[in-house]
Amino acid sequence: MQTDDQWTLELLHRFGDIRKATFECPSCGNIQSIQDFINLNLDPTRAYKDCIGRYVDQLGCNFSVDSVVALSDETQQIVTNKGNKIRVFHFI
Asked: Residue 36: pLDDT band by 50, 70, 90 thresholds?
C-alpha cells in the first residue's frame, strides 16, 4: 500500500507528464490516460477510478472503483493524506 504522495511521485517518475499517465480498466481492459479525460472535458482524477466507457457509449463498460466491493487484485489501494483508503487502477 502506498500513500497518495508516494503514488503521485511514482506516476510522475514513470510518465514525466501527469497527463500522459495511463491506466487499465480492470473490467474491460481499456487503456486510458488522464489526457483522454481532459480531452472529453471530464474530471481528470476519474481516469484512475472510472472506465472511460462510463462517459463514452461505444465502449460499453460502466466500471468504477466506487461501485465495486472487492477488487484487491485488479486495483491498488492508496492512503490519502487524511488517512482515507481509496482504490485506483494500476498504471500501464
From this structure: very high
